[in-house]
Prior knowledge:
This protein is α/β, with parallel strands linked by helices. It has helices at 14-26, 42-46, 56-60, 77-86, 101-114, 128-139, 174-190, 256-261, 303-315, 323-342; strands at residues 5-10, 30-36, 51-53, 67-70, 90-94, 118-121, 145-151, 195-201, 212-218, 223-229, 239-243, 246-250, 280-286, 289-295, 346-347.
Amino acid sequence: xxxxxxxxxxxxxxxxxxxxxxxxxxxxxxxxxxxxxxxxxxxxxxxxxxxxxxxxxxxxxxxxxxxxxxxxxxxxxxxxxxxxxxxxxxxxxxxxxxxxxxxxxxxxxxxxxxxxxxxxxxxxxxxxxxxxxxxxxxxxxxxxxxxxxxxxxxxxxxxxxxxxxxxxxxxxxxxxxxxxxxxxxxxxxxxxxxxxxxxxxxxxxxxxxxxxxxxxxxxxxxxxxxxxxxxxxxxxxxxxxxxxxxxxxxxxxxxxxxxxxxxxxxxxxxxxxxxxxxxxxxxxxxxxxxxxxxxxxxxxxxxxxxxxxxxxxxxxxxxxxxxxxxxxxxxxxxxxxxxxxxxxxxxxxx
Length: 350
């Protein structure tokens, strides 16, 4: 009989409802036992077998609950992860890990002391186009990558004054929200940079948190550019990659988020498949021939995050997203703000 992990979710907004509950629901290794939801009661309609509770404390007091999933605003990540660990629970926490690397260090040390796990939800490692890019790099078909540019752009000209992500709070702003994805992907591909330089702005009227950034990460033999903004009303490439033997160009976003927002479950047939019209273009040299064409996008699969969580907790396998990696993403964000303040390139000091 397959072992099941009794799991509770804290918070049922966009993160809990869209990015976590569906994957726990379809995975036979998890029992979505309790959900902390204080207002709408929507979780009970979607998952009637789960118990809705009104407080974080009530969830932590359940001795049979093994895993706690933190889907709260960023300012609550540190205290809630800490309380969960102190209660003897393993933890999944939404990205960004914490507002500061010092807080991340403290939580990592506590988890190690308690013999527990912290899984940070860097789900964009399982975007179909990023999986495709990793495969392209592994084949060596582009040769050594010399330039890598990644975008996460949107057109949202009006500030949402009701959103905590757009308030003047620790961990708010587009750099923490979207930048954490781009930085994690870059470091997954290339490791830690030698240095970085950043421009961070509030471009929209009435913005009190950053809504645009451009980061240059310098490596020994390549440059990585990461950028996101809220005033991009025309499609630009998501990835622009140039190597010694060829290039890769990709437009469009992974389809999983939109499917989840429509209420589709991740066990739906052809999950994560991208429309062929959105496949990336690749150009490379082979045996003195110049070849250009589209390359099929790998099927995206955010479920792999929770597949790994299950295997780690039940079989003791290696974590796909290590807490130290997620902590280094936060350190990169801190150094980006430092570079923006000073107007200078900043050495990457872990």
